[in-house]
Design a protein that fits this description.
CATH class of the largest domain: Mainly Alpha
Radius of gyration: 20 Å
Oligomer: single chain
Number of domains: 2
Keywords: DNA-binding
Shape: globular
GO molecular function: DNA-binding transcription factor activity; transcription cis-regulatory region binding
CATH superfamily of the largest domain: Tetracycline Repressor, domain 2
Mean pLDDT: 93
Largest sheet: none
Helix content: over 70%
Low-confidence stretches: 1-6
Order of helices and strands: HHHHHHHHHHHH
InterPro entries: Homeodomain-like_sf (IPR009057), HTH-type_TetR-like_transc_reg (IPR050109), HTH_TetR (IPR001647), TetR_C_34 (IPR041483)
CATH architecture of the largest domain: Orthogonal Bundle
Protein name: AcrR family transcriptional regulator
Organism: Thermocatellispora tengchongensis
CATH topology of the largest domain: Tetracycline Repressor, domain 2
Number of helices: 12
Structural class: mainly alpha
Strand content: under 5%
């Protein structure tokens, strides 16, 4: 889309379309090369805008990806709710949480950068909107998990859900190393033990948490 077309956007619905085009371009770039490697200039170029004009829609690169992260939280919520079965046991709940995270590499990548990068250099309003999304999704999923799995209280279920997202933010980068580390792991089996497999590791950790939470009542 040309920059002139962007500049002609005056009506609210047109501006929203432009925002969605920017988010779509940022999503595609992140899926291709990882969130860390995408610059504001790269996003601007992908949608045919000067960086200065991108600020009409998003103040910073971080705000773009913080909004994408909020969208990914909602997408994860829908996926988990779709898969939770009535009368699920702790193991089934853990499987749903872990598998739906594994199927969302962009969400995991965004989670891994949220506290270290994306929550910096943003407005208070953008930070508030993101935090309310994450808190709201975690709370709603906690209530859903507690309904289908009486093994947990609602607070315990909410903690399990929040821990799943937190573990994903730590384990995803370790399981998907940069090229230098991937080469090192391939050549040195002793060091390769640091490359943890994502799904088995997060399931094991969540099962340990699921077993331990009721004992702390």
């Amino acid at each position: 889309m040309s920059e002139a077309a962007f500049l002609r956007a005056r009506r609210p619905e047109h501006k929203q379309q432009r925002r969605e085009a920017i988010l779509a371009a940022a999503r595609e770039l992140a899926l291709r090369s990882g969130v860390r490697e995408v610059s504001l200039g790269g996003v601007a170029a992908a949608v045919g805008l000067a960086k200065s004009n991108l600020a009409r829609y998003f103040a910073t690169r971080e705000e773009i990806y913080l909004e994408l992260a909020a969208q990914e939280w909602h997408d994860w919520e829908r996926a988990v709710l779709d898969r939770l079965a009535p009368s699920s046991g702790p193991g089934a709940v853990v499987d749903v949480l872990a598998d739906t995270l594994a199927e969302r590499p962009l969400f995991c990548d965004l989670l891994s950068h949220s506290s270290t990068q994306l929550e910096h250099n943003v407005t208070v309003e953008a930070a508030r909107a993101f935090k309310l999304t994450a808190i709201g999704v975690t709370a709603r999923l906690g209530r859903a998990v507690a309904r289908v799995c009486p093994h947990f209280t609602e607070d315990e279920a909410r903690e399990l859900v929040g821990s799943a997202a937190a573990l994903a933010s730590l384990l995803y980068p370790a399981a998907n190393p940069p090229p230098v580390l991937a080469e090192l792991y391939a050549s040195d089996p002793e060091i390769a033990v640091a490359c943890l497999p994502f799904v088995p590791t997060i399931k094991r950790m969540l099962m340990a948490l699921a077993a331990g939470l009721p004992t702390l009542r």
